[in-house]
Prior knowledge:
Layout: E1 2-9, E2 15-28, E3 33-35, E4 40-41, E5 47-51, E6 57-62, E7 65-71, E8 77-81, E9 88-97, E10 109-115, E11 161-167, E12 177-179, E13 183-185, E14 191-195, E15 201-206, E16 209-215, E17 221-224, E18 241-251, E19 264-269, E20 279-285, H1 287-292, E21 306-311, E22 317-319, E23 332-334, E24 342-346, H2 347-353, E25 366-370, E26 376-380, E27 387-395, E28 398-404, E29 410-414, E30 418-421
Parallel strand pairs: 4-10, 13-19, 20-21, 21-23, 22-24, 23-25, 24-26, 25-29, 26-30
Antiparallel strand pairs: 1-2, 2-3, 2-5, 5-8, 6-7, 6-9, 9-10, 11-12, 11-14, 14-17, 15-16, 15-18, 18-19, 27-28, 28-29
Amino acid sequence: MENKTYSTNNNAGDTVTPQNFTIDSVYDGAYKTMTNPQEVVHSQNAFLNGTAQPGNHIGIYDNGVQIGEVTVDSYGLWNFQMPSMENGQHTITLQSVDTTGASLTPEPVSFVYNLDTGSKPADQDVEPQPEPQPEPQPQPEPQPEPKPQPDPQPQPDNNPAIYFAVDKVNNEHGDEVRVYNHQKTDDGKPTLQGVAEANSLVHVYDNGVLIGETHADQYGSWSFTPEQALAAPAMGSSEVLMEHHLTVQSENSSGELSAMSDEFSLQVSKFSLNSEMPLHMEYALTEQDIASLGHDGQIIGSDFTFDKISLTGEGTALNVSETNHALHSIEVFDLSAEGHQSLTLSLDDVIELGSKDLVTNMFQQKVVVNGDESDVLNLVDANHGWSDSHIAVQYEGHNYQAYTNSQGAAVLVEDNVHVNII
């Protein structure tokens, strides 16, 4: 396998983030075997498979002459079918360029492509060998010569593999991010990407339990997104990450199963967007409830889970600083019930009530405010510098803007809610 990381400069002289550019395998179509690029290929028109930056273009050259070009798909995978070529060694070179044509591989990636259509893989069509015959002994009656039995045919090596997972949530600027083996994700439903035998059925397992199936395409590439979110630690647990050991196994049209793939380890955060995030309780507060806060000895909220307050009644207003500390660990405020509701928060309120690990790890203590265009959030400035950070965050299928201050706290405000900094 050819696996290198390259960096380059753009026209402004800024360093471009290094990108992984790989040649992962060659799919020998006639014999349905997956090999490393340096191994002998036994049929014309085999497929090359690899990974690179999504949207980039890869030029393929044979002994310096271009024989094709491919575009990397949105998940970072590329495939190329080799043209008919003469038997022998071919120096195949690949050059990756971005959408502007700027080279991303200062040193082109090369390997020797060994084509031999006159031979077969070692595990194909093994000729039967007759068993050795004993030398004739004096005086025994002639024995019939035993018939040779063919040796058992080994299965082709079509072991599938998981290359990476695609994290689709809580990423700065909204980009999809590739997550590799032994890394962590806050996407409870990451999209897995890999290879298997072309056109095979791919079974996906999590810690040995089947969680779904998908199909490899004609090049052997496949992707899979679980229907159910991968389990994350319970909110009351001291654990922050849960380890998932993912494996895949392919099944061809004859029902033959491949060997199980190597494990792909993925650590899912307790605060993953798609995991079930239990609320300790959702508290519905009317104007009368708000007026009594801090006077009846009742404390609303819990340290162990995420808690939510919903305001009821049109025009209901809540100023957290006036509740005499009756609210405790309230991470979500919902103003969307009946319209024209308002919430007033100070920096001290956010620090006291918020959670460091809620939704995203980009900020320190934070709370979430839901609502629509008729609702108002008042942020008490008091020289702490509240401002719109212009960072967009997704949470439970809704879009939010992050309002931050000089102390590193944040309020994630649903789009359309009017924000006053007072």
